Structures are given as C-alpha cells and as structure tokens.
Amino acid sequence: MTRHHGRGIASINYPIGMNLGGDPSQALVHSNPSGKFTVALSSIDLGQGMKSVTRQICAETLGVPVEDVYVDTADSDTGPHCMGSFASRGTHRVGNAVMAAAREARGVMMEAAAEELEVNAADLETDGRGNIHVKGAPHRSISTKDVAIAAQFKQGRTISGRGIFLVPLSDVDPETGEMSPATCYAHACLVAEVEVDDETGEVSMVRMDSAYELGRALNPRLVEQQLVGGAWMGVSHALYETTEPYYPNPAHGPRDFVDYLMPGPGNICPHDIAVLERPAADGPFGAKGPGEMCANPVLPAVANAIFNAVGVRIDELPITPEKVLRAIKAQGGARPQPRR
Amino acid sequence: MLELRKDIFADERDDNLKEIGKGTQRQDMLGHVTGTSTYFDDHKLQGMLHLKVLRSAHPHARLRRIDTSEADRAPGVRRIIRGSDVPRNLNTLLSLINFGKDDEPTLAVDKVRYKGEPIVAVVADSPLEAFEAIAKIRVDYEPLPAVFDVEEALKPGAPVVNETYPKNTFTYHERYDHQKLRFGDVERGFAESDHVLEQRYQMSPIEHAPTETNGSIAAPDTNGRYVVYTSTQALFFSLDTCAKILDVPSNTFHFIGGTVGGGFGGKVDTLTEPLAILGAMLTGRPVRYVLGREEEMQYGPPRGAERIFIKDGVKRDGRIVARKITAYFDSGAYTRLSSYAVVKCAAHLPGPYTIPNVYGDIYCVFTNRTPATAMRGFGVTGMDFAIECQMDKLAHLVGIDPMEFRIINAYRDGDMKAHRREAKNTALIECVQVAADKAKWPLREEFKRMSSRKEGGGARAEIPPTPREPVASRPAPAQQRTSYDRGIAMPASEQRPVAPPPPPAPPSPPAAPSHGATRFSSVFGTRRR
Q: Which of A270, B156, B158, B479 has the fewest CB atoms below 10 angstroms from its CB?
C-alpha cells in the first residue's frame, strides 16, 4: 500500500447576477430624527452577510459611521422589490440599489446641513465619524444628529433616498446564442494537493492555494468566510456528495447525514487564499460577487491532482474511493505522474 | 488565511475609503452565535396546525383512484387538500419572467412523474396526526415505464415524462429542443488541429444540505390578508408565485423572512408556501409546513445532474483552435429552473479562454426523477469541472505545463467572446500567476510577465465567419401556451427579426397574466442588443 501525492490546478471565471439581466433590486434609505439610518430591503440574508455588506455600502456612501446604519431585510410590506438572493447578485445588484438610495439621502442631508451652516451644500463634506463640515474649515461643523433634528422639526425635509439597480434584459439569438449574459465576471485559479491511497482508493486533501479576483473585497472577513466555506463545498462536491450514488440508477439514495457524506472537521486542510481586486465598471465600489464561484475551481483541481498522483482520470462526480480503486485496478496499479 | 494583493490593478482603484474594505463584524453576528436570531420556524402561533403531504411511491404512474375516506375521519385531521382544491394547480416557476409553459402541479392529479411527488396534503393538529392520517390514504397506482437516463429519454419511443413537453426536452425559442451557441467553424478548426480529443463527463445530482430545511408558516391576518413566515431565498418571487397559484392579488400576502439557515439555491422553488397558505385559507388557522430531512434530501430539488461531451482541437504550440460541446441537463420531471441554467451554460462556453471556433448544443431533458433546481454555480459548476479536466488532459497531450497552458489560452481585455460580446475587466492570467506563486509552482519568466491588459483584441476581437445552418421553422401555435388570454400585443419597436435569414414569423404576443400573476420581465420577449 502506498499513499501518493499529487497536485492539480483549475482556473475559472464566473458571471455576476442573473443571466441575461432583467433582475432588478430596490432599496429605501431613511434617517430617524437622531441621524440614525435604516435601509429597508426585501432581500434575504442567507448567512452570506447581505445585511453587513449593504450596511457598509450605505455608511460609506452617506459618509456616516457604520454603527449609524441598520439594515432591515425581507418584509414584503416595508421592503421594496428585490429579485432574490441567488446568482451571486446580492453584492452587485442590491449593493448598487443601496448605493443609489444612500446617494439620494446624502443629497438631502447635505442640503439640510448647508441651511443650518448657512453655506453652499457643494462646499460641505462628511468626516465619516458623524459630522459634516465646511471643506478646509473643520471648525464650521454640524453633527448628522443635529442635521436630522433640524431637517425633521425645523426645515420639514425627509432625509431619505430611493434606489434601484437594473441590468436591462438581454435577448438570446436562437441560431448563434448571441447574448449579453452578464456585465462583469469574477475570476479564480486554485491549486489542490491531494494524497491518494492506492489500496483503498481514498483521497485526502493536503492543502489548497488559490487566487480569487472579486472586483473589490467590500469586507475582507466576509469574503474570507465565503471563499473558505465555498472551497470546502467544492471539496465535498468533488469527493463525497450525491443524492444518487449510482446515477442514473436512482437506487440507494441517502436519506440523512449518516448516508449523505460530506467532509468533517477531520478532513480539513490548510487553504491559503490571495484576493485580487480589479474593479468592475458597474459594481458598487467595483465589487463583483464571491458567492458562487468559490466552489467551482476545486472540483476539477482535485480531479487533476488525483491524475497527477496515481495516473487515473475520473470523469464522473463524485470521485468516490470505489471509482478511484476500480480505475487504478483497470490500469494495473498506480502510475504516479511527474511531481510538480 | 487571506492575503489582499492590493499591488495588482492598484491603478484601477481608489482605495481611499472609510467603511468599505474593513472587516467590520456582521450586523447579525451576536444573534447567530448566541442562538437568538429569529428564523421562520421560531414563530409558534396560537392554534397552529401542521401540514404534511402524501408522496408518490412510484417514479411514474397513472393515478387511478385516491381514497381519503378513512383519513378524513382520522383523529386530529382538520382538512385534506387535493389537487382540485388548488385554484391554479399548474404552474412553472419562471412564468414570472415569461419563460416556459406551466408544467408542474402543486398536487398531482392524474399522474405522478417522480417518486416522492406530492399527491394529497393533510392538515392536522399535530405532525404525528398528519402522518397517521397520510398512512390511511389509499392510492391506486397504475405504474408506467420510467426513464432515468438523459440520452435514453431523447430516443424515439422513450416514455413521455411530462406531457407539456412530449419530446422530453424543453423548447427553446419555440422551435428548438436545445440552446445553440455558434461561433466560427469548429469542423475547419478540427481539420487544422494537431490533436483532437473527445471526452465524456458526468456529474450526479447534489443536495444543498442546508441546516434549516425548506418550510413556511402561514396565518390569517386582519382584512383578509395572510402573513407568511418563510425560509425563501427570494421573497417576492415566492410571494408572486403564491399569488398566481392561489389566484389572488399579490397584496393579499405579507411575506416575512430574511434570515435563512442556508440556501445555496435550494430555497427558490416556493416548495411549501402555496400549500401552507391554502391550508390557512381553508381552515382559518395558522398552518406550518416544514420538510423533514429525508424529504429535503430526496424530494426537495437537487443540483441537477449533467452529462457533457467535449471535443477539442489543439495545436502543438498549445493553442486551442476548436471546442465543440454537447451537454444534457437532467431537469427531472418538471422544468423548475434547469431550462434557464442551460442558457447560462451556453453563455459560459468555452470557459474563460479565447478559442476561435466554438460550438455548443445544450439540452434540458426531462426524466422520472425529483425536479432539479438552482444551486451555487448554477449552469456552470458541472461545465467547469468538464472544461478544466479537459484542459489538464490537453496540456498533458501537448506536453505543456498546465498553468502555462491556461495562460496561453486565457481570454484578455478586448477579445471577442463566443456569445459575441467583447471581454472586458478580465483577470484570469493574474489569478493563475498569483496562485502559482502561492503554491510555489514554477512559471517561466515570460509567463510571469503576461497580462490580461496586454495583447488582447486586434484579430482576437473579430467575429469569425460562422457557417449557416438551416433555420427551423416555428411549430404550430398548438405548442404554445393557450391557457390564458393573449391580450398584450408587443410594441413593434421591441421586435427584431431573427438572424440569419430567412426570418421566421414574428414572435407571438406574450400571454397576459391573470390578476394573481405578476410578470417581472419577459425573457426572449423584449429584445435588446
């Protein structure tokens, strides 16, 4: 019995947002009389951090601290229409809608501040800490709280904004497939290192090294959470998961997590990630979406690493020990390829 | 470990930002780590009833008789719901974007098309009583031949899975059984190649495996409205789907969700809301319908299987000159979203590479298994597996390092993509370079100096001459949806003749929705370049 090491790579790109567009999202932003802002959405936080990333976008655009913004999601009576949380569209589509709404609200806030300070709104700037002051004259300043109070009780203005983002729907040519599927694409390349046991056919992950290009990492910790978790979903898809182990034969379908295999804590390996940021022209602060594409390069990188380790090509997912062992036996034993 | 490579593309960014780029703690972190975040199933309403469904025991069978008389009298049973109780039993999810025909019942009526298809719903005081009543329902099945293999399903004489699509394939552009992609001349490309490699790839169905299974709670509210707590990934998508199925105006519903215990694409199908609301309408009580783990795993929709054939022509120097792909997406018994994944997959070909000749035929095929749906990487994950395994084999074949092989073929700014749009904002080469660096994978100096921003465009920006194929004529309108009025005529300005000639008849006007249905947009209807 021998354990063979191998490395494999894959590189991919991924379209951001619903294919062909036509998938709008709306946002509403308003201030309460204390200068605290609420973002109303009907979008969904699946755990990926929709609330947090839109909160940061709103704070940055308004020029207020993130603590002064609260995001309320998914109530059809208060949140305006959103197509939904899928297709890597949250950051890009909803983020843009929130940015537009925050920009409109900021316009009103600056007008109200200008009236209080008796200056031109164009001469004002925010300090990001809850104050608005005259450019070059920080002592001529007013807090966003005092602006909100003045707007509400004295000036009769509503510090609020509406935002929508829509990539117009594209046609598809029936004969050539000509179409505009997406406005921006994320990119990735991943190297997987595996160990293959030629007696049992079992594949263990040794390490992963990757580079993901995402336009802009709006919150690097949320990005890390997506990429680490997503890559493990990729490992799980590559080596473990299916509801039909002998597809297309539907027999032996798993019914719980005893039968439906996934990697556990004991199967974890180091994953060293680099994030590149090439801003998308229409992304909020250039951001694309890391949600879906993070899993995709892992599946083929693992398959290619197995070939490098023992010289067999497994072209059917998942790559179970049974498939690896049968393939090794069929070629008369492991044939390790040159180390790389 | 995550490293931000701010040095790359630095000239394209303004990094002078205050909140963006910070690793701020999530707004909902405290609730999640202390177990106090509110999910749909945390709403325990007074007088709440529980709904469970009887599922088909066969993958394909005619329903001769459904006898619920004993179940009707079972303890705790408040209401039994049949297909005939559902106002508009037949629906297809993407009717909201006017894509596809209504092909799936909420509750099966005359036939079941996959094992586990819902036939009867029981609303009872407790889940146990609902299950016990379900055990008392007698269904007389007439089993029919079933088909499970996508290529078998396409053969003449194969069992018809879904009568809405009698050839077992979704209909594209009202005339084709697949989505085409045509760019250049692959046959000429193969003739000019030093090597041609044809391979088959297969991906099996995959479960989303969320911690929280699909579910919803619907309750009568004041003024004839219903409040619905739901795990949906798409609030208005689910709301408008329910408005259509239950045939009421959309403002009848107040949907509340937003905090979901894992989705990954498995919570866009509006699996539970229509029956939960209908249960509430029929009983006047709150009704909870939550899938068990076995239901979620076997009868909740998976990521669909894909079978992919790739034929590539490659030159000795590593340039791929032709790529031909035939792929079959296994949609299961109904359309759900696989039809749309097919179009996205066609747009994705030939992967992130500039190849002068590309040909794709992608099929959405019906088989007698649980309908497939979206999942993370929708339409792309399986294809990327196939393409990237193929890339490794090609590199091996021509004796070029697999990293360098990808850089040789990588798309760059200004290149023409196979779906006939210019590549912009590309970064594949840089990702390969950085990954190689991280993994200490040696790249030759010339490959380290290459850039996505250099040497693209020019001849690579051209659309190559593409052979014309005979254009299929549109079949008779009998194929099209006739179930509701055709009131809305399409403005002439939105019509565009289909290229290449001869142009077929102009598109028929889209069907008008009934008052309960909202159409968000119209795929393949309104035309834009």
A: B156
Q: What is the pLDDT of residue B518?
A: 63
CA distance B148 to B493: 44
Tell me: the pLDDT tens digits for A183-204? 999 999 999 999 999 999 999 9
Q: Which residues contact A26 (CB under 8 A, 6 or more apart)?
A: A41, A42, A80, A81, A82, A97, A162, A163, A164
**Closest partner CB to B419 (pick from A42, A177, A224):** A177
Contact A187 B181 (CB under 8 A): no
- Do the Cβ atoms of B339 and B357 come closer than 8 Å? no
Residues 6+ apart with CB under 8 A from A187: A11, A12, A13, A14, A212, A213, A276, B352, B426, B427, B428, B430, B431
Q: What digits encode the pLDDT tens for the residues B169-221?
A: 999 999 999 999 999 999 999 999 999 999 999 999 999 999 999 999 999 99
CA distance B63 to chain A (A): 22
Residues in chain A: 340
Tokens of A254: 């798993």
Domain residue spans of chain A: 3-16+184-330, 22-167
Judging contacts by C-beta atoms under 8 Å, the chain A residues touching residue B521 are 22-23, 169
* DSSP 8-state secondary structure symbol assigned to residue B172: B
CA distance B165 to chain A (A): 19
**Residue whose C-alpha is closest to residue A201's, from A333, A85, A107, A78:** A333
How do strand A37-40 and strand A69-72 relate by DSSP bridges?
parallel
Query: Is the predicted ipTM greater than 0.90, yes or no?
Result: yes
* B15: closest CA of chain A, how far (Å): 10
What the block records as the tokens of A303 is 């398959």
Please count the other Cβ atoms lying within 10 Å of the Cβ belonging to residue B528. 14
pLDDT band at A131 (very low <50, low <70, confident <90, very high): very high
Q: In angstroms, rounded to a whole number, what is the distance separating the alpha carbons of residues B183 and B466?
A: 6
**Phi and psi at residue A265, to the nearest 5°:** -55, -30
What pLDDT does residue B475 have?
61
CATH architecture of residue range(s) A22-167: 2-Layer Sandwich (3.30)
**B172 chain-A contacts, CB cut-off 8 A:** 174
Helices B402-409 and B428-438: crossing angle in degrees, nearest 10, is 160
Do A3-16+184-330 and A22-167 show the same overall fold?
yes
- Per-residue model confidence (pLDDT) at position B102: 97
Burial B445-484 (b: 16+ CB within 10 A, else e): eebeebebbeebeeeeeeeeebeeeebeebeeeeeebeee
The amino acid occupying position B130 is A
Provide the CATH topology of domain A3-16+184-330: Aldehyde Oxidoreductase; domain 4 (3.30.365)
Collect all residues of chain B within an 8 Å Cβ-Cβ radius of residue A36: none
Give DSSP secondary structure letters for B8-44: TTGGG-----SSTT--PPPTTHHHHHTT----GGG--
Low-confidence ranges of chain B (pLDDT < 70): 474-529
Q: Is the pTM of this model over 0.90?
A: yes
Per the structure block, which two tokens stand in for B427?
A: 């970064």
Q: Any long-range contacts for B220-226 (C-beta under 8 Å, 24+ apart)?
A: B220/B280, B220/B281, B220/B284, B220/B285, B220/B286, B221/B254, B224/B252, B225/B251, B225/B252, B225/B253, B225/B254, B226/B252, B226/B253, B226/B254, B226/B277, B226/B280, B226/B281
- Report which of A29, A92, A192 is spatially closest to residue B392, judged by C-alpha positions: A192
Question: Residues B148, B153, B156, B162: is their CA dihedral positive or negative?
Answer: positive
